[in-house]
Task: structure prediction
Amino acid sequence: MTTTQTASRATVSDPLDAARVRADFPILQQEDGQGRRLAFLDSAASSQKPAVVIDALAAYYRETNANIHRGVYELSEKATARYEEARHLVAHFVNAASARECVFVRNTTEAINLVAHTWGRRNVRPSDLIVSTVMDHHSNLVPWQMLAEETGAELAHVRVTADGRLDLDHLDELLAREPKLVAFPHVSNSLGTINPAAEIVRRAKAVGAVTLIDGAQSVPHLPTDVQALGCDFLAFSGHKMLGPMGSGVLFGRLELLQAMPPFMGGGGMIRKVELGRSTYADVPARFEAGTPAVADAIGLGAAVEYLQGLGMNAVREHEKVATAYALDRLGEVAGLRLFGPADAGSRAGVISFELDGIHPHDVAAILDGEGVAVRAGHHCCQPLMRELGVVATTRASFYVYNTGEDVDRLVDGLAKAQRIFAV
Amino acid sequence: MADQLYREIILDHYRNPRNKGILDPADFSHEDTNPLCGDEVRIDLRVADGRVETVRFSGRGCAISMAAASVLTEMVEGKTVDEVKAIGRDDLLEELEAPIGPARMKCATLGLKVLKAGLSGAGQGDEDL
Result:
């Protein structure tokens, strides 16, 4: 009874009609053996794809498939135009000053590795300081460890406060040492914390540091403006924002990209090749060696248009409503410990928690039996888990298609887990 | 599915683990973790006249990994070292009486993996066991 009441209360101020949005996602129309539809609460790992994205992929292969650039026949010209159009859509989506500032990659991890391999090897010297954070995903930790090992640079990590925010005083202490690079997540993939990205960039730039934002969990969920953020690099994944698997983007300020050596060598990234040496193409082609994932880039363009149709402010407000409702309902569960900031305004739609006496994997397995998909584990954040004093958490994450009913089913599933384990 | 997975045997062994603890000294002692989920299992054995006289397991992890390690200790107790080495994955799964899917197989077999790695790692010590 209370469930229904709170659910309807939760949808009152929701600017998105999530039930209608949901109808755009074929995979979410499926029912399991018991006639239940999937409550998909793992979009932080990878989102589902709307029909327009799936159709864009199919249409590309049915109507436009050909290798891009250099083809002198019409099909290749069409494919090239669609690919470059997708780049413009993505650039507009994050308000880049030029589409040339957007490099297509496979995912956030590849984008960050690209920066480490090219900008990093060119610019980082022994005893230079590279700053990232305890909150970072392994993809924003390991590439810098590898770079430090190779260059002799030093690593330091901004600490996390008890309520799951970056310790900005500690950031300032590290900035006093004038780091070469400051890399951090806009939104924590484990805690959901929205970090004050523009402010962190401002402080880092004041001491001359280059800044890289891991936008994997922010670009899909928050209005993003790279010019307002002021960052040098922003890495994000297309597959977490309704786009195809294998699509991702590195935004880089043109001036920096132009000064960077290539990432991989091969076709597409050259100007002129002799047997002994080559000169390289201008950006962004310099960083896109070989045949790119053309269909996936075009699919990402379709995803971006779909998100713009919903409106990113509406997406953010919807997730705030969903998160507030989930925090409320999870707060009612006895023996449940929430991680991260308590207020929905400080967090994106990611909620990590722990249930007394039941391991996260068991929680997730029982929820799976109820048709509720969540993630359990360290979420590629082992250092953060260590900091929180846990081996793993259970994580529920929300996106445009999630409704209050999904949250209710999560809470019902947790009650079932507690019944099974008799805790 | 979850109803079948968390059957009586798993829940019973998870709530009331058999042979839980450590042996010091032990004739054989080994531990490992499941890197995917962080589950940890350690197994200690004392052997007399070629038979497992005492076995203890310790660690932390999900119900499947802990219950499976507990069940394994009961299977091992009193057996000869050769008999223990012959215990396979299917033997353990049969004892668990639960439908372990691919996602949880590493949890279920962590204890067995620790036991086997330890026994083979004992190398020449096998003669003494």
Observations:
- The two ends of chain A are 24 Å apart (CA to CA).
